[in-house]
Write the structure tokens for this entry.
Amino acid sequence: MIIVHAGSEVVPFSKTGGLADVLGALPLSLGKMSHDAIIVSPLYKSVMERLKPGKPALTFTIRLNDENITADIYSLKINERVTAYFIANDSLFLRDGLYVDRNNIDYKDNSKRFIFLSRAVLELIQRLNIEPDVIHSHDWQTGLVPVYMKTLYKERFSRAVSVFTIHNIGYQGTFWHFDMPLTGLGWEYFTSDYLEFYGKISFLKAGIVFADAVTTVSPTYSREILNPEFGYGMEGILKTRRSDLFGILNGVDYEEWSPEHDKFIPNQYSTDTIELKRDDKMVLNRMFNLDHNDAPVIGMITRLARQKGIDLVINAAARIISMGFKLVLLGSGDKPYEDKMKEIANRYKGRFGVRIGFDNSLAHLIEAGSDLFLMPSVYEPCGLNQMYSLRFGTVPVVRATGGLNDTIVEYNPSSEKGNGFKFRERNADDMLSALKRAMDVFNEQSKWLRLVKTGMSYDFSWDRSAEHYELLYKAYSIKSLLHGYSDGNSSPDT
Ligand code: ADP
């Protein structure tokens, strides 16, 4: 098959979260399975610095409302089967931030930027003369792709299947209705059956309504978002798409996230040399000016947003410390959380270390040097760090939601089955009791070691997830072929 992946960030060129990891890894796994994969994403400043592009492979313009906007296309052949295309328009994309300015405020022209991206994706495929079997778009930034496939580009892409993945339903790309003309779609699409969402336009809703198949990044999250508590207003529309809604767990790129060959950590280790993990812990202790002792270290690497359960950590910080834990946190995001975390670190010097910022190499050291990894998320579509933590022998303590629920199995000290600790209720007491259960096992070092090694043996590689996507692509391709056949558009030979 020829599979196009369109998304607004891709590792190693641009990243704000898990979406980038998916765009960077899934196409490569599909390539390994002998499919041809194409990645389409914007050329931001970070991409420019890494790619150092020469001449554009292609240039075209797209008319948005009254304006002709130029797209310069730069291509990068990643391997025989996978090619990335970066869409450049300096005034729209050549910025430091992907979606927000340095004060964490959304760029005012985000609707224009991502309408342009969605149009450019289809325009590009058309101009490259590619006949894709699947066009898979991700999150609100490319939510209009499935819409355009059934409207403005209907004739051209009638045989391609559209798949839309929701990586986080909390981000919906809602814009005022005055942006409707920018989309190039008529006002007849500004109704509650299509793009209208509480008086505004929602690009996320657009993707959900128009895609042939809708997926989310874990089975539990695909069920959770059908309820008002998790659906952020989309639960009604999702229920109408229930039979086309699937949950496929993200995978882990073990090339990057494995302690045996991790280039960011000072001491590489495996299950056979697990004692070296302690050396990484000591480096981590020093890095965060923590007391030099063996007390269990809890690691956290997170966006500082309500979604990540930061309030629970703030409320329980004193009790976490008094239980005998140390905690290191790397994160950035909402200013009040950043300030609060710095204040707590100041109060508990030697026990609570905080770094505000985005730092991939430090993230690796935290995975390697921590004993436990805490993810008390309010909701978590998939979550990656709990899976990285397992491979690093860092025992996850998580709230039982979304992908955290699907990947972490509560440890049973009698049978020694399970790989971590889970709590259900969204309150500090429940979180603390999970941490207490973890501490009890930590204090029985031989048991703890077996738990650590069990975690390290789990396999959440991308190849497995890619097989699920392949199945979905095939199923919907057959469905589309059969529909085409019964509509008289295809002969049985095709
Ligand atoms: P989300 O996409 O909701 O932020 P995920 O767990 O799916 O959460 O993915 C987050 C990714 O971003 C992980 O790879 C994590 O290691 C990384 N990450 C998050 N915050 C930071 C940070 N401050 N520094 C380095 N990496 C970070």
Remarks:
- The CA atoms of residues 423 and 433 lie 8 Å apart.
